[in-house]
Design goal:
single chain, 7 helices, about 180 residues, about 45% helix, Rossmann fold, alpha/beta, five-stranded parallel β-sheet
C-alpha cells in the first residue's frame, strides 16, 4: 500500500493540447506546497528522452515517482496523454495500491479544438497536423469507468475549481515543506 488515507491522487488524462498541464499548474498554484506534479511529458521526453511506446521505461518511472511522492506525504497530480492501452494497467495498480482517495479526469477536447490549441504551443513547428491527427484518440477512457469526463466547454478556472472541490484539496491545509 502507498500513501496515507489523507493523501490525494489526481490523474488528469486527455489528448495533446486538451489542457492537462494548465489544469495541473492551476491545481498546484491554488493548493501550494505539498502537491507534487508528475508529468508524463517531463519524465518521458525530458528525463528519459524516450519515445512513447508499449512497455517503455517511462511507464515504470512515472509509477515510481507518484508512489514515492505519495509515500512522502505529498498529494500527487499525475498528468499526461497516458493512453489507456499503454498506461491503463499501471494506473489501475496505482489506484488499487493508494490508501487515500484517487480521482481520475479525462479532458475531452474535439480534434478541431486540439489543432487550434496546438498551433499556439512552442512545439507547433516540430509536430505537424498529420502527426497530431495520428496521435488523437477520441474518448480514450480507462476500462474501469472511474474517470470523470470534462468537456472543452469547461473553462480552465472552472475545471480547477471543480477538481479542487471534488478531491477535497480545497479544504485541506497546505503542507509547510
Amino acid at each position: 500500500m502507498i500513501g496515507t488515507e489523507e493523501t490525494r491522487l489526481v490523474v488528469l488524462r486527455g489528448n495533446s493540447a486538451s489542457g492537462k498541464s494548465s489544469v495541473a499548474a492551476g491545481l498546484r498554484e491554488r493548493f501550494g506546497r505539498g502537491l507534487a506534479l508528475v508529468g508524463q511529458d517531463n519524465i518521458r521526453r525530458v528525463v528519459l528522452r524516450e519515445r512513447d511506446r508499449p512497455g517503455a521505461a517511462n511507464i515504470g518511472l512515472i509509477d515510481l515517482t507518484a508512489r514515492y511522492a505519495l509515500d512522502a506525504g505529498f498529494h500527487v497530480v499525475l498528468e499526461g496523454i497516458l493512453n489507456a492501452d499503454r498506461y491503463g494497467d499501471m494506473l489501475a495498480r496505482l489506484r488499487a495500491d493508494h490508501r487515500g482517495p484517487t480521482h481520475g479526469y479525462y479532458l475531452d477536447v474535439p480534434i478541431e479544438e486540439t489543432l487550434a490549441r496546438h498551433a499556439t504551443k512552442p512545439i507547433a513547428d516540430d509536430v505537424d497536423e498529420a502527426q497530431l491527427r495520428d496521435w488523437y484518440r477520441p474518448r480514450d477512457l480507462l476500462l474501469d469507468g472511474t474517470e470523470i469526463v470534462i468537456g472543452s466547454d469547461s473553462a480552465l478556472h472552472e475545471t480547477v475549481d471543480r477538481i479542487m472541490l471534488d478531491t477535497g484539496l480545497a479544504h485541506l491545509p497546505t503542507l509547510d515543506r
